Amino acid sequence: MARPLGVAVIGAGYWGPNLARNFRAHPAWDLVAVCDRDRARAEKVVGARSTVEVCTDVEAVLARPDVDAVAIATPAATHASIALAALEAGKHVVVEKPLAPDSTDASKMVRAARDAGRVLMIDHTYCYTPAVQYIRDAIAKGALGRILYLEFTRINLGLIQPDVDVLWDLAPHDLSILDAILPGGLAPTRVSAVGSDPLGAGKACVAHLNLDTRDGATVHIAVNWLSPTKIRQTVIGGTHRTLVWDDLDPARRISVHDRGVQIGPSGPDLRERSAVSYRLGDITVPALEEREALSAMVGEFAAAIREDRPPATDGIAGLRVLSVLEAASASAADHGRPVRPRHVNAENGDME
Ligand SMILES: NC(=O)c1ccc[n+]([C@@H]2O[C@H](COP(=O)([O-])OP(=O)(O)OC[C@H]3O[C@@H](n4cnc5c(N)ncnc54)[C@H](O)[C@@H]3O)[C@@H](O)[C@H]2O)c1
Fold first, then answer.
1. Residue 6: strand pairing partners
2. Ligand 1: which of 10, 15, 57, 58 to mutate, judged by most atoms within 8 Å of the beta carbon?
3. Which residue intervals make up region (Disordered) (predicted)?
4. Residue extents of the structural domains in the chain
């Protein structure tokens, strides 16, 4: 068996410890170092009596020959500079979402990875959950029929982030899920968004995003940091069935409803054409494996490096999500006016 790949986690705040734990537990990886400007945070992640090095200096990590790859879990504004330095040092890189605060920097990261012949991956964590994999397969097999609408609700009492608004903090999850489950990925022709800051926090804490899919389905995403109730629900309505994903209900995470609305058969009679009936069928609850998505994510990162191929969530996937976020911000700044997102060139990461 090949020797484990050496990895360093940069950023040991809220999310970095989850990455460190999963790299540590995965047989394809050897966690070599944890780096944070705040030494105490890195020390806490590594724990006592460990051989994993603690450091505060990114350059020192990048100079280590035993570090094949880095995982960047620092605030979004720092992603591009750290990733570009890591790629220049010949390291493979996985970056937390969002890839960068703007698509200009993100495109540079994609090009730098291509030029260096290194893997650039984005941690779109949800894409590695059994639920998303089930939904992708169900849509691809046509089990839901033609997709009519997708509704995402992601609301809770959230940490008001210093650097991003709620749209940039939470909507990347739903956009990355869309990118993974829709045949052909995320490619809306129009995006409109509204955000509000009812408490005067200085940034949108509640936002609603609307977009369309390549096949003409309509998508609504609601994100909110002010809700005392935590909801993580997605409803995907198709002509045959409707799938409901409640990520907070492990016993019934996904249910597939064989019920819905039917419009009567078309005929010469106008009344007959508009007749609506309700189809009442079974509800199926598929058994899903319970495993941590981040373990599959770090496994995919190692496999992509070993097999010299793009990972399932590569830099281009990160760019597709960014292009929609940028369009959403532009729309929100203009009272919800629909905005056409820039097209991502999948060959070179250019934004057109
Ligand atoms: N995939 C997910 O589900 C998920 C969940 C939460 C956060 N995130 C992402 O993870 C990233 C980090 O978020 P967080 O909530 O952990 O932030 P955080 O502020 O809690 O932690 C960031 C850490 O980075 C350190 N840091 C900042 N600049 C540094 C530098 N130049 N060198 C070394 N260390 C540096 C800080 O000291 C801090 O400890 C963000 O991009 C966020 O969007 C992803």
1. 30
2. 15
3. 332-352
4. 5-125+293-313, 127-284
